[in-house]
Amino acid sequence: MSFYKIEGGAALQGSIDVHGAKNAALPILAATILNNGISVIHNCPDLSDIESIITILRSLGCRVTRDGGLVTVDSSGFTSADIPLEFMKQTRSSTIFAGALLARTKRAFIAGSGGCCIGKRPIDLHLMGFKALGADVSFRPDGILCRAPHICPCKIHLDFPSVGATENLMLASSLTPGLTVISNAAKEPEICNLADYLRSIGVGIKGDGTSEIYIKGTCSPSDGEVTVIADRIVAATYAACVACAGGRVDVRGASPSLLSPVVATLRRMGMTIECRNDGFVVEKSSRCINLPYLCTGPYPALPTDCQPLIVAAMTTSYGFGAISEKIFENRMAHCKRLCDMGADISVSGRTAMVRGAERLHGAAVDASDLRCGAALVAAALGAEGTSFVSGVHYIDRGYENLCTALKSVGANIERIE
Fold first, then answer.
1. Does domain 3-18+230-416 have CATH number 3.65.10.10?
2. Is 116 in the active site?
3. Helices (H), 189-341
4. Pick the catalytic residue: 62, 116, 241, 372?
């Protein structure tokens, strides 16, 4: 099984590029079944989760080709068969096909899907929205079947601004004439990127990036094209690596406006961050200071995906700090692993209380999920001695050649197969 061997203590220096966003590319790829034609996707990251979605597209009869970051999908050969169960179990992101399948075939089957075990991540809001659009939802022993012979435009209010539910409802209503309104919608940049793709195939969308999105579907979708935005969580990961290891790194390709709460948090902790339109320079020249209290929340609050990264930075910052997880109920697994490296962390419910240590020490630790793995890598870069981080397959779900990227800025890291 693959693992990272990391020799800590080397300050990071140089420049590093941010690849396309996993959480933007996945729903865009699912959306390509809508237009019965060609979709050209630029800056698509090469990740295991992306490959899982491409496998699903091919199983549905689509032709998919990749040339570096350029992915082309031809959905003219699409069949209306259900997604094979073995493919659906590979990635939790397969749920995003439900809205697109409802729109195109009036039927979607949802079975248990894989991914990281960071919480329940229920799909009740998705199903509520589908019902509002006229779908019949029936529960079976092996999954959930949604059928909608006639999707009816309507106004849907989400009790929580769920990213997945917002995306699925945008997709489900994209081929239906009339106006559908999603209120209390998610505002994440990835929502706007999906809207960009849908507009390119002829769907009328306004309000993306706000709490109210207006969708006017099209009966004659055209070929589409979109560029995937930079991955703001990857950019935040590189910043967290500097927070742990020290140094100065130019993070290129990701607008700091995409991760303003992370930038603000790291600045308050004492890091220097110089922003420009297409990136930022992050520098740590002295020990950071822990903040009394932080919490995650829906965009534009501190992203839940960045919480483990901030905890990693807190472990060697001066003083006491606390951070609460408001999105997922089971996203503190990294804390125990960081304690194995010498961190002083106690967890109460969804809150991690951290007393900064002078320095962590190397240890053998296992990633239990994607962002846990990234946090362990960041912490190991600043630790004294050698660390071994296993569970690399989780990291591969969201980071394209993380080892190579970090080596390019001076990290002593190698991947051992």
1. yes
2. yes
3. 189-200, 232-245, 260-268, 307-314, 333-340
4. 116
